[in-house]
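Hi, here's the filled form for the chain we discussed.

Project: internal
Contact: R.S.
Residues: 58
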Amino acid sequence: MTYGYVRASSLDQNEARQIREMKKLSIIPKNIFIDKQSGKDFERPQYKNLPVFILIYT
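And the returned structure, exactly as it came back:
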């Protein structure tokens, strides 16, 4: 199973292009984790959930 992570730096940025590219790689929507906040640190909820999700479901 393949997972993806998308981050847009601010609420007004659009993550659609990144999601389209992940879909081209056959990553299903439920396996794409998305955060809309700054990349200055790793305090991003979906980023933190990604490894936990992988450990539980793989």
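Let me know if anything looks off before we file it.
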